[in-house]
Specification:
Elements lengths: L1 H15 L4 E5 L5 E5 L5 E4 L1 H9 L6 E3 L24 H6 L4 E4 L5 H10 L3 E3 L8 H12 L3 H19 L7 H5 L9 E5 L15 H8 L3 E2 L11 H7 L3 E5 L3 H6 L7 H4 L3 E4 L11 H12 L2
Parallel strand pairs: 3-4, 3-5, 5-6, 7-8, 7-9, 9-10
Antiparallel strand pairs: 1-2
C-alpha cells in the first residue's frame, strides 16, 4: 500500500512540474513553491476549510480532517483522519497539488510533506483578532481567489460595523478602545474544566479581543497561555460564563462551578463550537451574539 501511495505521489509530482508556480513564505517562515492555480487542495485545519468555503473555493477541496465539520457540505469530502496523528499516506493518496495546514500541525509533518514533494503551506491562528483578515487574504492568494478574499473582508468589516452600531457604537475601533473598564461585565471563557484542569483564553489571544469587542472584560486577560487556576476563577466570580453549548449543562451541574454567581443567575452563555474557538469569519457572529447576551 505504501509503495502504491508513493507511486501516486511521484505521478502527482510529475504533473505538478508542468504547472506554473510561485514562492510564498508561510507563517512558520518556510519558503514553499506552490502552484499558481491549484486544482487539488487538502485542508488540515477546520479554520482553513471554513475560509475556503467562504471564498467559494470548495470545488478545489479533495480532503479534510475529522474536525473540519463546518459548513455541512464539508462532511461530503473524504477525511484523512485526525490532526495530531495525521496519516501521511491518506493525504498522499488524494494526490493533492497543495496542502494547507493550521496551528495544530507540527514540524514533523511539514518535514515529511516536504520530503514527498507536496507543497504544504501553514496558515496559523494568530493572537490578534484583526489577523483573521490577513489569513483570509493569504488563503485567497494561495487558491487564486484574491478578489473574493478582498470582497469577503470588506463584507465582514461592513457587517461588524453596521450591526455593532445598533449598540450606539460608531465603529469597531471605538468598541475595542472603550476606556470605561468599570462598566464592562467580567467574563470567563471555558476551554477546559473538571479533573483535567481549568483552561481559558488569556490576554494574548484573539478570543480575548472578541470578548472585549463584545463589551466584556476577560478575567484572564492578565495571563498568557491557557491554564487558569480554580481558585482564581472562584475568587473573580465573573458576571458571565461563556462555554461551548454542548458543555454548558455539564459545567453548570459540576461542583464547585455551580456556586458561581453567573451559574446561579442564569448568565452562562452557551456558544456554538467554532464561532469563538477558531479564527474564522463566524467570529463576527460570536461578537454580535455575545454583545446581545451581555447587554442589560
Amino acid at each position: 500500500m505504501l509503495a502504491f501511495v508513493l507511486l501516486l505521489a511521484a505521478c502527482g509530482q510529475q504533473s505538478r512540474q508542468a504547472q506554473t508556480t510561485d514562492t510564498v513564505v508561510d507563517d512558520y517562515g518556510r519558503k514553499v513553491v506552490v502552484p499558481t492555480q491549484p486544482q487539488r487542495v487538502v485542508s488540515l485545519s477546520p479554520a482553513v476549510t471554513e475560509i475556503l468555503f467562504a471564498l467559494g473555493a470548495q470545488d478545489l477541496l479533495v480532503g479534510r480532517t475529522d474536525f473540519c465539520v463546518y459548513p455541512d457540505a464539508a462532511l461530503d469530502l473524504p477525511s484523512i483522519g485526525g490532526i495530531s496523528n495525521l496519516n501521511i499516506e491518506s493525504i498522499l493518496s488524494l494526490n493533492p497539488d497543495l496542502v494547507i495546514s493550521g496551528s495544530m500541525v507540527g514540524k514533523k509533518v511539514t518535514d515529511q510533506m516536504d520530503q514527498m514533494g507536496v507543497p504544504m503551506v501553514c496558515v496559523i491562528e494568530k493572537p490578534k483578532f484583526e489577523a483573521l483578515f490577513d489569513n483570509i487574504t493569504a488563503i485567497g492568494k494561495l487558491v487564486n481567489k484574491e478578489h473574493e478574499a478582498d470582497s469577503l473582508n470588506n463584507c465582514l468589516n461592513a457587517l461588524m460595523h453596521d450591526c455593532l452600531s445598533e449598540f450606539a457604537q460608531s465603529d469597531t475601533q471605538t468598541i475595542k478602545q472603550s476606556s470605561n473598564q468599570a462598566i464592562r461585565p467580567s467574563v470567563y471563557y471555558v476551554v477546559g474544566f473538571g479533573a483535567g484542569g481549568n483552561f481559558t483564553a488569556g490576554g494574548n489571544t484573539f478570543i480575548n479581543d472578541i470578548i472585549r469587542m463584545a463589551g466584556g472584560r476577560n478575567i484572564a486577560e492578565g495571563i498568557e497561555g491557557w491554564s487558569y487556576s480554580l481558585e482564581a476563577l472562584m475568587k473573580e466570580n465573573p458576571d458571565y460564563i461563556i462555554v461551548r453549548r454542548e458543555d454548558s449543562a455539564a459545567f453548570c451541574d459540576m461542583k464547585p462551578y455551580n456556586r458561581l454567581s453567573a451559574v446561579k443567575s442564569g448568565h452562562v452563555i452557551g456558544i456554538v463550537s467554532g464561532t469563538l474557538d477558531l479564527q474564522v469569519p463566524r467570529n463576527i457572529d460570536a461578537i454580535l451574539y455575545l454583545r446581545k447576551r451581555m447587554t442589560p
